[in-house]
Design goal:
The protein has about 400 residues and is an alpha+beta fold. It has three domains: about 110 residues, Butyryl-Coa Dehydrogenase, subunit A, domain 1, CATH 1.10.540; about 100 residues, Beta Barrel (Butyryl-CoA Dehydrogenase, subunit A, domain 2), CATH 2.40.110; about 150 residues, Butyryl-CoA Dehydrogenase, subunit A, domain 3, CATH 1.20.140.10. It is built from eleven helices and nine strands. Keywords: FAD, Flavoprotein, Oxidoreductase.
């Protein structure tokens, strides 16, 4: 005689978690109004940018038709007070930059070049009159700017080796030289150009109104493999005449230039962290849906190990950048702080996106799956705004008291 057994109940299949790169819920440190802006930017990037950005990346083109809606986000001059700027804390600036890069590092770079480097140069090194003249229109994105420091033969040696020269002739400056890798340059309205004054050998800053300045030309840099949406240019200046009124009145040495670079290196830390968020979230979603041997590859131990490593890198960078933002808001941010963040976060970002590309296998090199795009773009973040090694030497000087620069 057999005893009947009750049928086993089938457990309801649990839904897989939605990929979320904010594992430690750092967004909760934001005030309600700050959080509202970050969510606004996140929604915009997810609904407007993400559906089209892969095509623009593949085509090496900028989505100009998005500019009118991008302007409506109200993030021009974020972190600056007055002059029509968006204002807000550096913490808010960082979270916004992270959200932009979470979908596309190129859009974040476009934002950083204009609002951080170009506007920042005028905000930090301009006269009151120059701030009143330029910043309101730039905050409204009516005038787009770029930042010309790097040269074809001068990158890390910009502090003392600029070959672009400035010579005063009456009340006019004459600029000669070239700049390279200048984001936004092929199409922007004004350029911040840094040149070596032949009279005192000091680096000075100038506002060049591109379209109306004879002798000023820009050639777009083609065939890039990273940050392809950003339009980079090589600027050539042949006896470009700039009025004294367009010289940044407080930009009289490389020390003044460095004040701007400190802020932008800080932004690159946020951008590389946002890129990790995007790579992690896209990778996790892929592993949850990709089936092998009859089950999602996210169920395999080696896959989960790499996902956890990606998340560890990402979360460490988020926590570091949050503390850096607090130091900045407290007026305590130094060059060495920004340098460590830029070096550490971009290096970890390289590692994180490489693991993501690995987990996607062959699909990891196809732009359609997003991760390959992050994989390439992070290579540029690792190098620009100061190389990894140069940032470590800045930190080394701070902690040893000895300069290792040649």
């Amino acid at each position: 005689m057999t005893t009947a057994t009750a049928p086993r109940k089938t457990e309801a299949k649990k839904p897989v978690p939605v990929p979320n790169g904010d594992f430690y819920q750092l967004v909760e440190v934001l005030a309600p109004d700050e959080l509202a802006l970050v969510k606004k930017v996140r929604t915009y990037m997810q609904t407007k940018v993400k559906p089209v950005i892969n095509k623009y990346w593949a085509d090496d083109a900028f989505p100009f038709e998005l500019l009118p809606s991008f302007k409506e986000l109200g993030i021009g001059g974020l972190g600056y007070d007055g002059y029509g700027c968006a204002g807000g804390s550096q913490k808010l600036f960082g979270f916004v930059a992270m959200e932009l890069a979470r979908v596309d590092p190129s859009i974040c770079t476009f934002f950083g070049v204009h609002s951080g480097l170009a506007m920042g140069s005028i905000y930090l090194d301009g006269s009151e009159e120059q701030k009143q003249k330029w910043l309101p229109a730039m905050a409204r994105w009516e005038k787009i700017g770029c930042f010309g420091l790097t040269e074809p033969l001068v990158g890390s040696g910009s502090s003392g080796g600029l070959t672009t020269t400035a010579k005063l002739d009456g009340d006019t400056w004459i600029l000669n030289g070239q700049k390279r890798w200048i984001g936004n340059a092929p199409w922007c309205d004004l350029s911040i150009i840094w040149a070596r004054d032949l009279a005192d050998n000091q680096v000075k800053g100038f506002i060049v109104e591109n379209k109306s300045t004879p002798g000023f030309s820009v050639e777009k840099i083609e065939h890039k493999i990273a940050l392809k949406v950003v339009q980079n240019g090589e600027i050539t200046m042949k006896d470009v005449r700039v009025p004294e009124a367009n010289r940044l009145q407080a930009g009289n040495s490389f020390r003044d230039t460095a004040r701007v670079l400190r802020m932008t290196r800080y932004m690159v830390g946020w951008a590389s962290t946002g890129a990790q968020m995007g790579a992690f979230e896209n990778t996790l979603a892929y592993t949850q849906s990709r089936l092998q041997f009859g089950k999602p590859i996210a169920s395999f131990q080696l896959v989960q190990d790499l996902l956890a490593k990606m998340l560890g890198n990402l979360t460490a960078c988020q926590c570091l950048m949050l503390r850096l933002a607090q130091l900045d808001d407290e007026g305590k941010l130094g060059d060495h702080h920004a340098a460590l963040a830029k070096a550490f976060c971009t290096a970890k970002s390289r590692e994180t996106v490489a693991w993501g590309r690995e987990l996607l296998g062959g699909n990891g090199i196809v732009a359609d799956y997003n991760v390959g795009r992050f994989f390439n773009d992070v290579e540029a973040l690792y190098s620009y705004e100061g190389t990894y090694q140069m940032q470590n030497l800045i930190v080394g000087k701070a902690i040893t008291g000895i300069s290792a620069f040649i």
